[in-house]
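Hi R.,

Here's the input for the magnesium ion complex you asked about:
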Amino acid sequence: MPKFVYDFTEGNKDLKDLLGGKGANLAEMTNLGLPVPPGFTITAEACRHYLAHGTLPAGLADEVDSHLAALESAMGKKLGQSDDPLLVSVRSGAKFSMPGMMETVLNVGLNDESVHGLAAQAGDERFAWDSYRRLIQMFGKTVLDVDGDLFEDAIEDVKRARGAGSDGDLTADDFKELVGRFKAIVKEQAGRSFPTDPREQMDLAVEAVFNSWNAPRAILYRRQERIPVDLGTAVNICSMVFGNMGLDSGTGVAFTRDPASGQQGVYGDYLQNAQGEDVVAGIRNTVPLTELERIDKASYDRLLEIMETLENHYRDMCDIEFTIERGKLWMLQTRVGKRTAAAAFRIACQLLDQGLIDRDEAARRVTGDQLAQLMFPRFASRVDGVTKLTRGMNASPGAAVGKAVFTSPRAVELAGRGEDVILVRRETNPDDLAGMVAAKGVLTSRGGKTSHAAVVARGMGKTCVCGAEELDVDVKDGHFTAPGGVTVREGDVISIDGSSGDVYLGEVPVEDSPVVRYFEGELTEADGDDLVKAVHRVMGHADARARLRVRANCDTPEDAARARRFGAAGIGLCRTEHMFLGDRRRLVEELILAEDDEGRKAALDALEPLQKQDFEGIFEAMDGLPVTIRLIDPPLHEFLPDITELSVKVALAGDGADAKDRKLLEAVTRLHEQNPMLGLRGVRLGLVIPGLFGMQVRAIAEAAAARRRAGGDPRPEIMIPLVGAVQELEAVRDEARGILAEVAAASGVDVPALIGTMIELPRAALTAGQIAEAAEFFSFGTNDLTQTTWGFSRDDVEAAFFSQYLELGIFGVSPFETLDREGVGRLIRIAVEEGRRARPDLHLGICGEHGGDPDSVHFCHGAGLDYVSCSPFRIPVARLEAGRAAIEAAEAASGSGTGGSDSR
Ligand code: PEP
Ligand code: MG
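And here is the predicted structure with magnesium ion in place:
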C-alpha cells in the first residue's frame, strides 16, 4: 500500500511529484532546522486516486489519524480542543506553482467552544472571533460553494451599521455578530449547517482542495502554462501561526535577490498585524521589508540569516513567505523564485562567481526565450501627449514607433526616404513581405498569434501587434479608426508595444537593446553593463558545449552579414524565390509566357546574370562558410498577377483588352491550382520547366568561380526542394552535375558544390535510405513536413481554427511553432537513421522555422542532426539552446542532473 501522508520531517525538496512544490520545500526547510510550523502533507497521489475514483484511497484516513495524533502530541494540544485549540491551515500545493488557482482554508478547528479557548489563550476576544468568521467564510466559499459576495455583503452591512470605515474598526462583538450571520448564510445556501466537528472540517477541506484541481480557472491556467492535467495537487496541513495578534505580529514576503533586476539586497514587503490574505486583499499598504529592521530587529536579523541559508542551500534565488507571531519568526513557504529575463542572466553569473554553481548549471538557469526577450527594443517610459488607442495581441515583442502606412509599396517608399513606418493592415499576406521588411513594426486588426503577420514578424525579430479588433482599418482610404472615434491617417505617428499589445497615438521613446548592440558588435563585452557581461559569459560557455551548429535562413548579403555577426556558421537556407520579385517579376512572366525554346532561353538568359550577382554577394558575406542555396520552390503562378483582378481588368476592357493581358490571363488560368501547396512546385517545377533549375545552378557555379578568382572561399551547397522520390532527385542532380562540370571547364576554376535535398514530405522521410544514395545532405523542411504530415494547409488552418484547437487542448502549442515530436519528429528520426545507414557521412540539418525554437533545438540535438538553421535574429537563441541541449544530454547520460532550477 503506498504511503499517502508525509510528516514535514519526512520529505525533501526533490519529492515535488509526490508532495507538490510547497510540501517538498516545507519539508526541506524543516530538515534544515528552520522554524516551520509543524505539519504534514497528503500526497498528490492520494489526490489522483480521489479524482479518478471519486473516493479517498483506502488507508488514507488511518494515516491522517496517526499523523494528526503525532502533530497534536508535538504541539501539546488537540485539534479544536475547547480550552486551547490546535488550529491548522489546509493548503493546496501542486508540483508547479499555480498562484491563486486552488484553495486554502485557514483556522480549521474553531467552533462555538474553541473560539473561547482561543480568545483566552490569545488574551484577545476580537482576534478569536475574527479568526472564526474567517474560517466560516473561507470554508463556506471553498468547501460548500457558497457565493463569496454574500459574506462580503454581510461585512459591509455591519460596517455600515457601525459607521466603521474599515475591517479594523470592527469590534469583537461585531465579529460575533458576523459569525452568526455567516452561519445563517451557510445554512441557507448550502442546505447544511457549518460543521462544528474539527476533524470533519479538516477532512472536508482536504476534499475541497482536491476538487479545486478541476476548477475551471485551474484548468485554464494549466492549459496556458502547459502543466499536465493529471498531476493532481498535494495538500499541506500545517499548524496555524498568526500574524494578526497585535503590533508585534505581521506577515511578509521576501526575495533573496531582486526578481526584477537580479541585484543582491533585501527585497520584499511586510504588513504589521495582518494575515497573508490581508496583503493580497490590499486592505492596508505594506511597507518595504527593510522597515522590519526598525519594527522588530531580532526577527529581521533572523530572517536575513535564513535567507542566506536558503540561497546557499538551494543555490538559487528564493522567494519566501513568513509570519511573525508575537515576535517569533515562522517560515510558511519558500521556492526557487520567478524572475525576469535580465535577472535570470545576472543571477546565474552571480551564483557562478560565488562558486555556488558551475558554468554548465549557469547555462541551464537561463533560456532561449529569456534571451529573445532581452533582444527586443523596448519603450523607455511613457510620456505626456501619448494616447493609448487600444490593445491587440502581443504577437512579436519589442517596441516600434513610426508613421502609419497602409500598403506595402508605401512602406517601402517612405522607408526608402529614411522614414520610420508602421505597416498597418487588416491582415498581411506574402505580398506584404517587402513592406514588413521596410517597416519598424506591423499592426493588424485581424488574426491571432499564428497569423501570417505574427509568424513572419517573429521570424524577422520585428515588433508586431496583431488582431487589434477594435481598430477599423480602411486600407483603400489610408486610415484607421480607434474606439472613441479617433482617426489615424497615413503619416500620423503611432507607437506599438509588441510585448503588451498596446497601441498608442504619438511617439513613445524607444531604447535599443544593449544585448542586440552587443551581438551586432557595436558594444563590446567590456563596455557593456553587467547584463551584457552576463550574456557574453553564458553564450561563450554555450558555444563551447554545443554540438549542433547554427546556420541562418537568409537570402541577402545584408542579412548574411548580420547572421555572421550573430554567430552563424553558414547559411542553411537561401530561398531563391525572393530573388524573383520586384523588377524581376517581369522576367518570370516572360519565362512563363514564352511560346518556344528561344523565348524561354531569352528569359532565362536575362535572369541568370542577376542571380549570379545575388549569389556573389552572399558568398562574399559568408566567405569560408557553407551556403545552402535552395532552387526555386513556389508555384510559378505566385509570380503572376492575381487571377480575379486580371479577369476583371480584361473583362472590363472588353474588345479593347491588351493582348499581353489576355495572354497573361490565359497563363494564369492554365497555372491556377486548387491546392498550390501540393501542386506544381519544388522539384516538380525543375523537371517540368526546362532550363529553370539549370539556370540557377549555372548562376551558382559561375558566382562561386568568380568569387574564387577574386581570392574568396565560396562554399556552395545546392538544395532541391520538395523531393518525394529518389528518381526526381537523380534527374535534377545529374543535370546539375553536368552544368557544374561545364562551368568548371569553361572557367578553369573548379569549386566543389554538395548536392542535397530537403526532406519535407512524409514519402521522402520514409524512403530516406534510397534518397540518401543520391543526396550528400538532407535538410528537414519542417514547415512543409508539418503541413503534409498533419494534412494542414498552414495559411488556411492557422487563422481558421488553431485558436480553438489550442483551447480544446488538442495541442498545447502550434506544431508550426514547436516541432511535433511524436509525428513529425518520428519521421525525422526515421529519415536520420535510414539516411545515415545508406550514407554514413550524410550531413543533416533543419531549416524549417523550428530551427529557432528552443524546444525544437533540443529535439534536433537528440535526433543527431549536425545543424539547425533559423532566421538571423534567432541565431543567438539557437546557439544558447544548442549549448543547453548538449549540457542537458550530458547530464542525463551521467545521471548527474542537479534539478537546480525548477521554477516555471
Ligand atoms: C520548409 O518547408 O520547412 C521550408 C524551409 O521551406 P519553405 O518554408 O520555404 O516552404
Ligand atoms: Mg518547404
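One thing worth noting: The chain has 35 helices and 31 strands.

Cheers,
M.
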